[in-house]
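A.,

Following up on our hallway conversation. Structure tokens first:
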């Protein structure tokens, strides 16, 4: 039997519609959510992600501005821009698109963003809060996956959830979120990575398998337990001269084969990606409400 396809586009659209209404209401109260996105350099996939984020903001009524800086921009210049946005009371959220060029320390940049405007939830203060299970901005991709599970009524509680990949953006924070004693979490979590050797013995035990390794089609059907839920976080750009953009987006999972084994699965594109973008909008609205003392932060 073929798996249920988890439609991230549809859920993200539902979130955008809810936010659109909420933002109209906030505007009536004099609160105009504003997000500043900073893009350094010309990396094609980063450019396309940033363009989509800008479009999403326009769609729901967030004042979304993108500052584009040249590849050679110094760390000092970027830090000065972040300081300016930190000090601007009209700015509710800041996002610096990663990766950054080699001359700029990502660690320094992330730490320079005010934790109150850190829409990625990457600042050490927000990560610390998340680990402790306290109020924080959650990283957008992990939060988006959790929302997707919730929408499809797939409760991780008591399940064995295996994450392949330990990035700071997805693998690590998602593993932490899923082990919390909270609703839509409370799983037994295993994290596999490049040091694990053969990951198959682990992935085959997963009730929920999260592929976030950044390796095209590395999860093959024989690595999946029959009936498992498969979440594909991969967004690998493969050259494709036949595609209009010159590339094709493929996930970390061999989708065609995996969907015959899994009970539910996310496609690429149209699964996790749209949920990540939707959560950025949600975080921005949450921040704007907090600044205007209209609502506190919710718990992860
Ligand atoms: N690059 C890839 N994913 C992300 C993300 O979630 N946030 C930022 N800032 N950069 C990214």
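Then the amino acids I'd put at each of the 300 positions:
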């Amino acid at each position: 039997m073929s798996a249920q396809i988890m439609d991230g586009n549809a859920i993200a659209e539902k979130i955008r519609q809810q936010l659109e209404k909420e933002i109209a209401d906030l505007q009536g109260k004099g609160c105009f959510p504003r997000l500043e996105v900073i893009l350094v350099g010309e990396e094609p996939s980063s450019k396309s992600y940033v363009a989509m984020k800008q479009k999403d903001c326009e769609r729901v009524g967030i004042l979304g501005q993108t500052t584009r800086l040249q590849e050679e921009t110094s760390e000092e210049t970027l830090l000065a821009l972040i300081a300016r946005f930190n000090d601007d009371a009209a700015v509710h959220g800041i996002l610096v698109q990663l990766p950054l060029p080699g001359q700029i320390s990502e660690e320094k940049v992330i730490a320079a963003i005010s934790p109150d405007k850190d829409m990625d939830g990457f600042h050490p203060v927000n990560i610390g809060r998340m680990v402790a299970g306290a109020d924080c901005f959650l990283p957008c991709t992990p939060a988006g996956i959790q929302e997707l599970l919730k929408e499809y009524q797939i409760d991780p509680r008591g399940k064995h959830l295996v994450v392949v990949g330990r990035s700071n953006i997805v693998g690590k924070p998602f593993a932490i979120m899923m082990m919390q004693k909270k609703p839509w979490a409370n799983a037994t979590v295993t994290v596999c990575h490049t040091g694990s050797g053969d990951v198959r013995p682990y992935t085959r035990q997963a009730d929920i398998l999260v592929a976030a390794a950044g390796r095209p089609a590395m999860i093959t059907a024989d690595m999946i337990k029959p009936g498992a839920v498969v979440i594909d976080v991969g967004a690998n750009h493969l050259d494709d001269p036949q595609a209009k953009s010159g590339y094709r987006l493929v996930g970390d999972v061999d989708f065609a084969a995996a969907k015959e084994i899994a009970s539910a699965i996310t496609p690429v594109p149209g699964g996790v990606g749209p949920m990540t973008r939707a959560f950025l909008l949600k975080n921005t609205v949450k921040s704007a409400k907090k600044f205007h003392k209209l609502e506190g932060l919710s718990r992860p």
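The longest helix spans residues 8-28. Curious whether your intuition agrees with the design.

B.
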